[in-house]
Amino acid sequence: MSVQLNNLQRELAALVDRHTFEEGQQSTGISNLYFSRHSSPYHSKRTEMPYKIDKPSIYIVVQGIKDVIFGEERFRYGPPHYLVASMDLPVTAEVLEASAEVPNLSCKIEFTRSDILELLSDDELTVNPKGKSRRSLNVAELDVSMLDAVLRLVGLLDKPADIPALAPLFTKEILYRVLHGEHGCPLRQIVTDGTPAIHIQNAIQHLLNHFQDSFHVKDLADIAKMSVPSFHRHFKQITSMSPIQFQKQLRLQEARRLLIMESLNVTDTAFQVGYESPTQFIREYSRMFGISPKKDMSRLKKADEDG
Asked: Which ranges carry the HTH araC/xylS-type domain (predicted)?
């Protein structure tokens, strides 16, 4: 990391540290800016981090290291990298480096599709609709220009009177640099008419709204206005998962939330997220999280009580 980049990173970490007052994710005085703070490794301690990305966003770890598990892929990022996500996704996040003395600190900046469209020329919106779809989650390297823009956006929290005028400008600058960076294409394809990503997004939205229900792949392909083979290919390119795997991620992540946050029993949880067999639910939950639902619930509740 260059000296200039390192200095900007330290300054940003100090700002985020000063403006976070509790564990977990929290909103800020800037509507599209969120912080998160963790003083212990996430995978062994807490369950509050969101398991679904629901808007085009970038995530910057300003202190510490995180892993994001997306399908069968694991993305590790920390200074000087950022994670860019282009659409609604079920993910599992883990904080790997964190302590009370040096907490894991990160920020999330959300964008709207209107924000993206505003920055794209007609030429950039002209694509080959039959081309290969791009994965919707990627890690990229921060450079000095982009980190400086992020620092200026976060710094507005010290000058709240400037937020209405300057926050949209700084957000636009950050998004411009993301769009013209190494992984800007996935953001462009979600707003470009005729791209497979637009149609896959419709199928993903259906799964998000109806993950408890069984489905036929042909029905999803019809929603996406694609043949079944084409739908399978583009869905896997964009999400790194099959539709069945995607649904399973949604079901099991929601099941974990119900067990921990709403204290449902294992059988009721299985039925509520769409499983017909509690035995199958327990087997798939154990495979995904490495522990049975009952033991996971007891362990995490005890960790929260001790913390």
From this structure: 201-299
Q: How confident is the model at residue 124 (pLDDT cuts 50, 70, 90)?
A: low
CA atoms in the 13 A half-sphere facing the CB of 229: 0
Judge contact between 138 and 240, C-beta under 8 A. no
82 forms beta bridges with: 60, 140
pLDDT at 49 over 50: no
Question: In the chain, how long is the greatest CA-to-CA distance?
Answer: 57
Reported as a pLDDT band with limits 50, 70 and 90, residue 306 is low
Query: Measuring CA to CA, which residue among 56, 75, 57, 73 is closest to residue 65?
Result: 75
* Predicted TM-score (pTM) of this structure: 0.85
State both tokens at 298: 């007891």
What is the 3 state secondary structure string of 108-137?
EEECCHHHHHHCCCCCCCCCCCCCCCCCCE
In this structure, which CATH number among 1.10.10.60, 3.40.50.11270, 3.40.140.10, 3.40.640.10 belongs to the domain 245-306?
A: 1.10.10.60
Q: In the Cβ-directed half-sphere of 101, how many Cα atoms lie within 13 Å?
A: 0
CA–CA separation, 170 and 156 (whole Å):
10
Average pLDDT score over residue span 85-102? 87
- Virtual CA dihedral for 204, 220, 200, 111, nearest 10 degrees? -20
